[in-house]
Amino acid sequence: MPDVTKTATAVEDTVAPPSATEPKGTHKPDKARSLWGDAWADLRRNPYFLVSMVLIAFLLLISAWPTLFSSASPTRGDLVNHFLGKPELGKIGSEGWFGYDGQGRSVYARLIHGTRASVIVGIAVTAIVTVVGGLMGMIAGYFGGAWDAVLSRITDIFFGIPFLLGAMVVLQSFTERTVWVVVGALAFLGWTQMARVMRGAVITIKQADYVHAAKALGAGTSRILFRHILPNAMAPVIVVATIALGGYISAEATLSYLGLGLASPTVSWGVDISTAVDQIRVAPHVLLWPSIMLSITVLAFIMLGEAVRNALDPKLR
């Protein structure tokens, strides 16, 4: 009968340890990345994402500390010396760099200080509609039944109201239209799209095996919603929110242009565009600069949303 101990020892001696067989300088294979890890890797290589983030970071810096870029007052006018003054393009960063408006105010200073109102409106409205619409969509999609029927009909009612027309009607009822009044009006009508996106994502995700496993293990409803469903349903919501942010900034400018949004003494690009329309023939620069700034801002957020959508959607890779 063969000696089992000697045979096992001989086999062990012929098999070299892993450290001896692996050549020096080799690396272990990378761990599998999650959806967010893959998305971040794609975003870092996307030039549209990089350009949009630089522009957005610059806009946030301007809105937070406008005095770093212009020491001139955006509300002080000098009709005698600066009435529709032409741009002094050679004097970069000066009070008269972009010229003066019909009240003798610095266009450059108003451009810088007007960034804050537009950025606040865009970010605040996006945050509110994401939270409100996300919660309503999550409740409707997860519980279904009567919850889904009631919340879906409420969403349909609000969705049937034209966005800008409804915002005009709401704002018309206020005598003083500050930044937060405009934010409330836009958020009051803008949450419906987010609710529909979240509802569809939750209906799909709640059928996943890991959700059924969590229920079988006795996880509570709140834990399932916020630990298992919400993180996996956020991808489409983030895409829609990022693209919609630029739309809310554009909507604020449109309402201000029509005289139903922000109004003086609030400094806003929409207010400046509205007042510059009557002077476009004699002083086109008064209309040109706030229009360019508004277009760049909206474009930056749309580019960011497109880059995020391409990174988070596996079908587009």
Quick structural gist:
The chain is mainly alpha-helical.
Report strand %: under 5%
Sheet bearing the most strands, described?
A: none
Mean pLDDT: 86
Large-scale geometry: elongated
How many beta strands in the DSSP annotation? 0
Number of helices: 14
How does the helix and strand content classify structurally?
A: mainly alpha
Estimated helix fraction: 55-70%
From the alpha carbons, calculate the radius of gyration and give it in angstroms: 28 Å
Whole-Å distance between the termini? 62 Å
Low-confidence blocks of residues: 4-22
Order of helices and strands: HHHHHHHHHHHHHH
List the helices and strands and how they pair.
Elements: H1 4-14, H2 18-21, H3 35-44, H4 47-64, H5 79-82, H6 107-143, H7 145-159, H8 163-172, H9 179-190, H10 192-205, H11 209-216, H12 221-257, H13 269-276, H14 285-312
Helix pairs in contact: 3-14, 4-6, 4-14, 6-7, 6-9, 6-10, 6-12, 7-10, 8-9, 10-12, 11-12, 12-13, 12-14, 13-14
